[in-house]
């Protein structure tokens, strides 16, 4: 039996069946389609504008490495808005996370950094917060407050990005979230009955919230398997070591649930993301009118009295240590000449 020809070019043999559209694609057309989707997302939602200074958050996984590769390639070909500055950075959470998981690919990041002229920096939780994710987790767990390591890590990582963003003078932070991540987020917000979290969702950066660096997700309409295929054929390393905490992370289960549902509804991931986007838009119209407070302890913007970071750190019994660290950071800030 002969291999069917690619639906798009009609010339080369098809190598990939795209369930959501029913197309059979050759690798060439698949790669072009992925690049077009990412570029279209950047343009349609104005993820970047002339003169933006964009931080690329590198986790070490294939998604963020592919993002860095694509943004570097687009800029080199003049396909990004003019004078967009790109800076890549990683956050080292400290043991037991980063020992392998996040740092394993730093050699490859440095290669991309040279190839596309994108400066790269590594920050640690220790230098940003004075404590590691593991210390916070152990503090909480010893008081029988059972919060998942990935939740603690996520709360600290989101804050870390804001601190880094301010330090580097970034106007946007780009992350490697793909369509699967985004559709999982929608389901997670629904199943944990967390309506407020939808106000963080959506394709366009939240620009007018003081103290928050807007996040952009150029890969959010690309399926995870397509990112993986793209990465594989472009020499981008696929992660061999998974985060040790992934197996009881609620997202892990959702991956399989979504895959099952997708058999009956090939567009379910797109539908979920569109639904989340519409809901986010409604919510933002409402929350934009609510002024943000400043956290009683750290002064960061928050909707309540105490921010999530200080809440976790204080329940872990580490608030004093954290506040002392913050004071020394602020002192060095005001002492530095710039
Ligand atoms: Zn083709
Ligand atoms: Zn705080």
Automatic annotation (TrEMBL):
Zn(2+) 2 binds at residues 295, 298, 307, 310. InterPro entries: Ncs6/Tuc1/Ctu1, Rossmann-like_a/b/a_fold, TilS/TtcA_N, tRNA_thiolation_TtcA_Ctu1. Keywords: ATP-binding, Metal-binding, Nucleotide-binding, Transferase, Zinc. SUPFAM superfamilies: Adenine nucleotide alpha hydrolases-like (SSF52402). Pfam families: ATP_bind_3. The keyword Nucleotide-binding applies. GO terms for molecular function: ATP binding; metal ion binding; transferase activity; tRNA binding. Residues 54-239 form the tRNA(Ile)-lysidine/2-thiocytidine synthase N-terminal domain. Zn(2+) 1 binds at residues 6, 9, 26, 29. It comes from the Archaea. Signal peptide: none annotated. GO terms for biological process: tRNA wobble position uridine thiolation. The keyword Metal-binding applies. GO terms for cellular component: cytosolic tRNA wobble base thiouridylase complex. ATP binds at residues 57-59, 63, 91, 176, 181. PANTHER family: ATPASES OF THE PP SUPERFAMILY-RELATED, CYTOPLASMIC TRNA 2-THIOLATION PROTEIN 1. This is Argininosuccinate synthase. It comes from Vulcanisaeta souniana JCM 11219.
């Amino acid at each position: 039996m002969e291999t069917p020809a690619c639906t798009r070019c009609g010339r080369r043999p098809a190598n990939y069946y795209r369930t959501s559209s029913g197309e059979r694609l050759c690798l060439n057309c698949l790669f072009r389609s992925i690049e077009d989707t990412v570029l279209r997302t950047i343009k349609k939602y104005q993820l970047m504008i002339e003169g933006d200074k964009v931080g690329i958050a590198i986790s070490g996984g294939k998604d963020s490495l592919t993002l860095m590769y694509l943004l570097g390639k687009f800029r080199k070909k003049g396909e990004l808005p003019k004078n967009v500055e790109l800076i890549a950075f990683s956050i080292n959470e400290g043991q037991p996370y980063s020992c392998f998981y996040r740092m394993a690919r730093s050699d490859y990041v440095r290669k991309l950094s040279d190839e596309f002229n994108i400066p790269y920096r590594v920050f640690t939780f220790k230098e940003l917060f004075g404590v590691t994710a593991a210390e916070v987790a152990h503090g909480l767990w010893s008081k029988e407050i059972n919060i998942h390591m990935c939740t603690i890590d996520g709360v600290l990582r989101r804050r870390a990005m804001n601190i880094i963003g301010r330090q580097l003078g970034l106007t946007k932070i780009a992350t490697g979230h793909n369509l699967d991540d985004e559709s999982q987020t929608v389901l997670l917000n629904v199943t944990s009955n967390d309506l407020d979290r939808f106000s963080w969702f959506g394709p366009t950066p939240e620009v007018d919230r003081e103290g928050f660096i807007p996040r952009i997700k150029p890969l959010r309409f690309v399926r995870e398997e397509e990112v993986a295929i793209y990465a594989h054929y472009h020499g981008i390393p696929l992660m061999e070591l998974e985060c040790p905490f992934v197996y009881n992370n609620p997202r892990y289960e959702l991956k399989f649930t979504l895959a099952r549902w997708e058999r009956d509804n090939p567009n379910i991931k797109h539908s979920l993301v569109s639904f989340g986007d519409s809901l986010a838009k409604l919510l933002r119209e409402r929350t934009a009118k609510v002024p943000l407070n400043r956290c009683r302890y750290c002064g960061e913007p928050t909707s309540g009295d105490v921010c999530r970071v200080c809440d976790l750190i204080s329940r872990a019994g580490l608030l004093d240590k954290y506040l002392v660290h913050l004071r020394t950071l602020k002192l060095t800030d005001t002492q530095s000449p710039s």
